[in-house]
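TA notes, week 10

Several of you asked for a full example with nothing omitted. So below is the full record: structure tokens for the whole chain, then the designed sequence directly under it. When grading your own attempts, check the secondary structure regions first.
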């Protein structure tokens, strides 16, 4: 297919009813909204052609067309043969067939799906290879071959009946310029991009336009990764600075039962607000990656019962004790260096030494602690005493939060839009990302965590930001 200069490369997605055409488009174009891409288990849900443009900055780069499914391919093939007469039918015969059948004819579905091809569109033929290869499929392939348009076949691969794939590949290879595998329910970003790259192999005439589109897609993906890093940094920074307090009256201060009741209420409020921050972060990520059907419900009791002293928690989330100790030691050493420099070297490096020892010890002994409750003074209310919760005493608490965020980021980013069921992000999923980090990365992040806890508002740290961007890039490729 070679369009005149300025015309938009167009590809019609065709196939039998319920082969997954609309699911392929939904995943390829990141659309899980049924108002945009019609996907239904009901046969014949798509009865009209639907144009789906790929746009960047208001400029349409490529156009895909969702078409009705073949409903009677064998008889339609015979009708085209009758129109043509002897020999092999060609595009002219297909055009006559479309003109005759497009408005209420016996083969209206076939005519509507062939109309874009008559107008110059290339072909993406979607097949579910779990289906047996019957004569009706061969008829579809013949009709598409008669159009003479560039053609790519997509095997919308599923787990069952893998033994039929090679049979399909062999037969499709004799009808199509290119055969590719694409799982609409599990395709990741790299697979979606590779599918677009495959268009270059069937449409040389629009190479520059397709390559430019792929460049735009790469740029947009990089921008999303940077925004995601910013979202996660914002959440962790706010969570580590967060405090909750409740004033104690004289009786509550002296009566342990009442004080304990206040303590429990404050604990619930603290965790509920951390959970809301986390949930807001995931909602921002869901919007960024264009998910309407994937949902998140963290819940107020999300952190309730988190026991950092239990072996199970240490095995599942955050850093191991040895990693936490090393990260705390390096962060403490950095603080000691500042002391040495501030005294003009008069401490002879003892500040660095004791800082490292103190940091490592704090990480080891406090690593099990939950965000602590303490009695403090609220100056703006005079001399009344208050219970205060936060910032977290646990050195492992930010690592646990980060571990969870990275898991959910991967879940959001890799969730295929062709999966049409409404689903929730899993809360109790396995983690383990932060334990894979290098020692240098753990130390850099630990210093940033400590700054947020101790100093409150801190300036934007470009080095830490780029570290987060690199981390998310690694999660994408896992």
């Amino acid at each position: 297919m070679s369009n005149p200069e300025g015309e938009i490369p167009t590809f019609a997605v065709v196939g039998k009813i319920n082969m997954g055409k609309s699911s392929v488009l939904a995943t390829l174009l990141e659309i899980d909204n049924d108002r945009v891409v019609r996907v239904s288990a009901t046969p014949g849900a798509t009865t009209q052609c639907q144009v789906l443009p790929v746009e960047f900055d208001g400029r349409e780069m490529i156009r895909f067309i969702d078409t009705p499914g073949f409903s009677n391919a064998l008889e339609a093939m015979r009708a085209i043969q009758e129109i043509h007469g002897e020999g092999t039918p060609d595009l002219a015969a297909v055009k006559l067939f479309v003109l005759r059948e497009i408005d209420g004819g016996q083969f209206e579905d076939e005519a509507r799906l062939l109309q874009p091809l008559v107008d110059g569109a290339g072909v993406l033929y979607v097949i579910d290879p779990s289906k047996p290869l019957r004569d009706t499929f061969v008829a579809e392939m013949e009709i598409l071959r008669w159009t003479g348009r560039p053609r790519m076949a997509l095997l919308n691969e599923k787990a069952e009946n893998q033994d039929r794939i090679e049979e399909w590949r062999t037969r499709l290879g004799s009808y199509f310029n290119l055969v590719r595998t694409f799982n609409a329910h599990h395709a990741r970003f790299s697979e979606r991009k590779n599918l677009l790259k495959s268009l270059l192999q069937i449409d040389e005439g629009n190479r520059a336009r397709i390559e430019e589109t792929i460049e735009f897609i790469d740029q947009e993906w990089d921008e999303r990764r940077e925004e995601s890093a910013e979202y996660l940094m914002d959440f962790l920074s706010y969570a580590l600075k967060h405090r909750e307090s409740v004033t104690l009256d004289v009786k509550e201060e002296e009566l342990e039962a009442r004080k304990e009741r206040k303590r429990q209420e404050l604990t619930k409020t603290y965790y509920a607000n951390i959970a809301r921050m986390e949930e807001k972060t995931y909602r921002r990520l869901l919007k960024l990656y264009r998910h309407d059907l994937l949902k998140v419900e963290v819940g107020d009791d999300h952190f309730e019962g988190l026991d950092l002293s239990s072996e199970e928690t240490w095995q599942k989330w955050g850093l191991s004790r040895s990693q936490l100790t090393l990260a705390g030691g390096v962060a403490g050493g950095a603080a000691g260096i500042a002391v040495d420099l501030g005294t003009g070297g008069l401490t002879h490096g003892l500040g660095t030494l004791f800082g490292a020892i103190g940091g490592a010890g704090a990480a080891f002994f406090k690593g099990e602690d939950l965000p602590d409750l303490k009695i403090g003074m609220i100056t703006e209310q005079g001399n009344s005493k208050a219970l205060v919760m936060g910032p977290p005493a646990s050195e492992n608490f930010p690592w646990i939060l980060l571990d969870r965020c990275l898991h959910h980021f991967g879940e959001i980013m890799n969730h295929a839009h062709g999966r049409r069921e409404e689903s929730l992000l899993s809360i109790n999923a396995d983690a383990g990302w932060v334990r894979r980090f290098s020692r240098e990365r753990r130390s850099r992040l630990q210093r940033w965590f400590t700054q947020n806890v101790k100093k409150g508002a801190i300036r934007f740290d470009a080095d830490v930001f780029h570290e987060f961007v690199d981390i998310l890039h690694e999660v994408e490729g896992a």
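The chain has 16 helices and eleven strands. Use that as a sanity check on your answer.
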